[in-house]
Each structure stands twice: as structure tokens, then as C-alpha cells.
């Protein structure tokens, strides 16, 4: 199962949109859900026109930003873990 829209798919979306093809038809051609195509266009469009290169840059930046933020580790917990590691604590 594919989760993320690929660069090649973004290129096809741009071409098909410029030709006036409907979202449902684009989804059918790419063998994706119409909601996936709609979400891709909504999340990764900078202006009223969908640009595959800009969309790819926006999506990659979003993925990178998500990875950079530790979701469950507070500063206090991080300090505690680092202190434990310095004292040769083990995870066992």
C-alpha cells in the first residue's frame, strides 16, 4: 500500500489538471482515492495553480519538519535520559 504521493504522480496531477480532467478521473488514472488527490492539491498548492515541483518541495518540508519535533519527549525527560546514559544505564 502506497502512503505518500510520489513526484511522478505529482507531475501527472499537474498535467491532468491543466487539461481540465476532474479529480475523480485523475484518481482513477493514478489508482488512488479521490480524497487522496484532493488532499494533495489542497495541502501542497501555493496558489490557485497546482505546480508539481512546488508541491513536492512543500510536502518534503512538511515531512522533514514532522521528523524534527520529538512528540513525547519533554526537556525534563530528555535531560533525565541523557544523565542516565552518562552513568552507563542500560535500557534492559
Percent of residues in beta strands? Answer: under 5%
How many DSSP H or I helices?
5
Q: Quick one: biggest sheet?
A: none
Tell me the number of strands.
0
**What is the string of SSEs from the N terminus onward?**
HHHHH
Low-confidence stretches: none
Distance between the termini: 35 Å
Number of domains: 1
Would you mind describing this structure in some detail?
- The chain is mainly alpha-helical and 92 residues long.
- It has one domain.
- The chain contains 5 helices and no strands.
- α1 runs antiparallel to α4, α2 packs across α3 and α3 crosses α4.
- The model has no long low-confidence stretch (mean pLDDT 86).
Topology:
Layout: H1 7-18, H2 23-30, H3 34-44, H4 52-68, H5 75-86
Short overview:
The chain is built from five helices and no strands.
Kindly list the characteristics that best describe this protein.
92 residues, mainly alpha, elongated
